[in-house]
């Protein structure tokens, strides 16, 4: 042992080497440090949510990935690994490309109309008028009625023979009589059928857009609007440079939900046209359902539905990154 | 010398052979006794039986079925529960039960026949099928392709929905048209009556009716979907092109474009509204007209399946069949209930207002219930030998199921009606068939 120059005590380094680290007073194990405890507490609180996401989102997603690379069938308990065979099969099918094109088209066109109509409705509902609460309650009806019921109602309205839409158009002289060339067959002509599907989707979802926007508009402080008015801004300038940036986070979340709902919505197409005539209105979810469930080829059905993922992923990343940036 | 006697006895009759023979003998004897007594054995008492089936188009049939099942259950001490779901939901529900390995004991395939898809998970019912067939004069030829896989029966056919021709006798007589007993006569009638405000209509859309209507025309023209083995595609033929050319002419001359938007009920409404000169549909259209428009019903007649150019008549209907899951805990009760059901096919036919057509030959002894006593419906008694199902003349295999649910044959006709040449349409359809078959072979 080395003696210290000022009193015979060992030097600090030698003293430290002599005492076992674990036994040193004031040095705690890492899991006892306040940081570790705080982390442990935080993760404990988070764990139900993580478990929930892992079980209800992660597991089905991983299972669908497994199905997509296997030859799984609804009637066979054994499946073999087939690599990317199912994706290749979808890629080679002309119907798949029609479905892919229609999925994108319906989502984009419907989103444009929903934005326009939703914004208009939200502005209208901001105005003071008698019965405003009642009207606010009524506008959500399309969004809240079960889709099977509302879409079947639309199917009847689009009926080739008894269409109330055509009857009304005929009465005001816009179209000619039933049985003539000028009588639109809403669900029988490829472009009209796609338009009819988009119209029902817009009808069902634009109240949701309006409600999201309404929540945003009411969150903008009136003083800010008034100050901009004093500065001499026009309505469009206030909307473009003031309101939109302020409500952007809400808008992004709304757009995110709407895109997911529209891309994955199977009911409108299934009930109105079942993908026909020909395959003119086929979308990815209906094609996946037909092949995966009705035809029993689970693997190929899963592969087709997974094509939605690369479509949605960039959109989601873009929207969420934008949202995060704005939060800072 | 008898070669058998040279073998030691343990080589001739193994323990497994003995048990198998004895088991089959005991099962056969007990089944025979049950059939004679029309009562299930005592060991079923206290058990339960769950049945999954579609909601029949004729609600009275469901009421009869439920009552009959309940009475059978009470008589035999079995708690019977029947779940009816829309026919379009049946495949998804069956897939879910398969995945879970639990659910109903007895399941019904309706329209879409899933025997080929699930047979590995279904109970082999060959013995039951043979016994039922023997009792009722045998099965009609169309019953085999929907219930058998590799020579074994994994389902018991129940009934099929017939798709005859419904035509307006008053309109035909007024314009001196002969009854529509051939497709050519149908075309002449449609061509003559369309300008008078009475076109015809067959669905060029994604619905069940499109699947069987165009197949009926196609097969009547000599077209074939597969060979009898079901392994080879025979779509690309001159008969198919003839059928496509005819369909195009029928559409151009006798239909309006609304057929591209029709669902399964649209032609019923078309007939009931008094517009159609003829339609090709199930007798639900006949009943709808009877219930909603008696003056039109008075002149609505039922025709035999129209003959093609060579005189061939083929009708494509919608079959139903029952199967038992291997995981079912009450397979014996399910088997005995199927015996009860087939024993009561007459009552079922009456309850369904003549909608349920038997797949057993004795069912065609004239006069048949309901249809044999109605002068306008009597022609339906001559349909059994004309019946065929998708895949004709081959069996209803899983690739055929895929081309059916993705409407490939119906779309082939639609492409031609919309202006593509028969050659282009056949080429497209062959591409789809080949892709489907290749995928199934790889799997």
List keywords for this structure.
heterodimer, A: 328 residues, mainly alpha, 15 helices, flat, B: 443 residues, six-stranded mixed sheet, three-stranded antiparallel sheet, 13 strands, disordered N terminus
Description:
The complex is a heterodimer of chains A (328) and B (443). Chain A is mainly α. Helices cover 70% and strands 0% of the residues of chain A. Chain A is built from 15 helices and no strands. In chain A, helix 4 (94-126) packs parallel to helix 9 (190-219), helix 4 (94-126) packs across helix 13 (284-294) and helix 13 runs antiparallel to helix 14 (298-306). The longest helix of chain A is centred in the N-terminal third of the chain and has 35 residues, at 34-68. Chain A is flat. Chain B has helices at 3-6, 9-12, 15-37, 59-76, 90-100, 115-118, 126-135, 143-147, 169-174, 183-193, 208-220, 238-254, 266-272, 283-292, 294-298, 331-343, 345-351, 398-405, 408-417, 422-442; strands at residues 48-54, 79-85, 106-110, 148-149, 152-153, 156-161, 165-168, 278-280, 300-303, 315-316, 318-324, 356-358, 387-388. Chain B has a 6-stranded mixed beta sheet with strand order 2-1-3-11-6-12, with helices on both faces. A 3-stranded antiparallel beta sheet of chain B has the order 8-7-9, sandwiched between helices. A two-stranded antiparallel ribbon of chain B has the order 4-5. Chains A and B meet through helix 3 and helix 13 of A and helix 5, helix 13, helix 18, helix 19 and helix 20 of B.
Radius of gyration of chain B: 24 Å
- Rg of chain A: 30 Å
Shape of chain B: globular
Termini separation of chain B comes to 51 Å
Helix content of chain B: 40-55%
Query: Would you report the number of β strands of chain B?
Result: 13
What is the helix fraction of residues of chain A, given as a range?
55-70%
| Secondary-structure-derived class of chain A | mainly alpha
Biggest pleated-sheet summary of chain A: none
pLDDT averaged over residues of chain B: 90
Number of helices of chain B: 20
Biggest interface, chains and residue tallies: A-B, 42 and 50 residues
Low-confidence stretches of chain A: 1-17
Low-confidence stretches of chain B: 1-13
Multimeric state: heterodimer
């Amino acid at each position: 042992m080395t003696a210290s120059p000022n009193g015979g005590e060992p030097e600090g380094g030698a003293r430290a080497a002599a005492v076992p680290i674990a036994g040193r007073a004031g040095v705690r194990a890492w899991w006892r440090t306040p940081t570790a405890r705080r982390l442990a507490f935080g993760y404990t609180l988070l764990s139900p949510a993580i478990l929930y996401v892992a079980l209800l989102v992660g597991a089905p997603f991983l299972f669908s990935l497994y199905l997509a690379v296997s030859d799984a069938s609804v009637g066979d308990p054994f499946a073999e690994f087939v690599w990317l065979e199912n994706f290749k099969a979808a890629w080679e099918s002309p119907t798949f490309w029609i479905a892919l094109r229609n999925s994108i088209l319906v989502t984009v066109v419907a989103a444009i109309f929903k934005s326009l109509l939703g914004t208009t409705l939200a502005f209208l509902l901001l105005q003071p008028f008698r019965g405003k609460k009642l009207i606010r309650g009524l506008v959500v009806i399309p969004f809240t009625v079960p889709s099977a019921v509302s879409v079947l109602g639309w199917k009847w309205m689009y009926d080739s023979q008894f269409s109330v839409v055509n009857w009304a158009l005929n009465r005001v002289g816009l179209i000619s009589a039933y049985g003539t060339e000028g009588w639109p067959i809403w669900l029988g002509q490829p472009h009209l059928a796609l338009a009819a599907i988009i119209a029902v989707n817009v009808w069902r979802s634009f109240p949701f857009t309006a409600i999201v926007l309404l929540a945003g508009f009411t969150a903008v402080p009136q003083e800010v609007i008034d100050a901009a008015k004093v500065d001499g801004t026009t309505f469009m300038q206030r909307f473009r440079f003031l309101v939109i940036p302020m409500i952007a986070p809400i808008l992004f979340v709304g757009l995110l939900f709407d895109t997911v709902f529209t891309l994955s919505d199977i009911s409108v197409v299934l009930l109105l046209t079942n993908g026909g005539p020909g395959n003119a209105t086929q979308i990815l979810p209906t094609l996946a359902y037909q092949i995966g469930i009705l035809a029993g080829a689970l693997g190929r059905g899963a592969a087709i539905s997974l094509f939605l993922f690369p479509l949605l992923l960039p959109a989601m990343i873009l929207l969420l990154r934008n949202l995060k940036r704005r939060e800072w | 010398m008898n070669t058998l006697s040279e073998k030691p006895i343990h080589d001739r009759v193994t323990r497994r052979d003995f048990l198998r023979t004895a088991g089959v003998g005991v099962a056969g004897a007990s089944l025979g006794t049950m059939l004679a007594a029309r009562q299930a054995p005592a060991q079923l008492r206290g058990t339960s039986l769950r049945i999954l089936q579609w909601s029949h188009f004729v609600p009275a049939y469901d009421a009869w079925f439920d009552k009959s099942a309940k009475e059978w259950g009470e008589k035999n001490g079995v708690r019977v529960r029947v779940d009816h779901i829309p026919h379009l939901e049946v495949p998804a529900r069956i897939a879910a039960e398969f995945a879970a390995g639990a659910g109903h004991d007895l399941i019904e395939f309706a329209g879409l026949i899933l025997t080929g898809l699930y047979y590995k998970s279904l109970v082999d019912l060959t013995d039951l099928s043979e016994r039922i067939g023997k009792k009722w004069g045998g099965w009609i030829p169309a019953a085999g392709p929907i219930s058998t896989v590799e020579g074994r029966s994994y389902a018991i056919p129940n009934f099929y929905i017939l798709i005859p021709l419904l035509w307006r006798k008053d309109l035909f007589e007024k314009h001196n048209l002969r009854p529509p007993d051939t497709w050519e006569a149908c075309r002449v009638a449609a061509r003559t009556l369309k300008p008078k405000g009475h076109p015809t209509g067959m669905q060029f859309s994604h619905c069940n009716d499109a699947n069987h209507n165009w197949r009926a025309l196609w097969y009547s023209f000599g077209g074939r979907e597969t060979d009898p083995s079901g392994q080879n595609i025979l779509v690309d033929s001159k008969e198919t092109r003839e059928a496509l050319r005819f369909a195009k002419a029928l559409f151009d001359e006798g239909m309006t474009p609304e057929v591209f938007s029709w669902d399964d009920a649209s032609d019923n409404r078309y007939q009931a509204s008094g517009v159609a000169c003829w339609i090709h549909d199930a007798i639900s259209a006949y009943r709808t007209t009877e219930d909603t428009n008696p003056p039109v019903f008075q002149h609505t007649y039922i025709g035999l399946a129209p003959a093609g150019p060579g005189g061939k008549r083929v009708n494509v209907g919608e079959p139903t069949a029952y199967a038992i899951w291997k995981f079912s805990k009450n397979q014996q009760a399910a088997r005995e209930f199927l015996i009860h059901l087939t024993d009561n096919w007459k009552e079922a036919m009456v309850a369904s207002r003549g909608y349920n057509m038997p797949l057993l030959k004795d069912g065609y002894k004239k006069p048949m219930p309901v249809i044999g006593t109605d002068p306008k419906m009597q022609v339906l008694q001559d349909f059994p030998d004309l019946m065929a199902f998708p895949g004709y003349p081959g069996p209803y295999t899983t690739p055929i199921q895929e081309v059916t649910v993705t409407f490939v044959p119906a779309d082939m006709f639609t492409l031609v009606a919309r202006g593509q040449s028969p050659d282009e349409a056949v080429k497209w359809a062959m591409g789809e068939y080949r892709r489907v078959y290749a995928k199934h072979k790889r799997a």
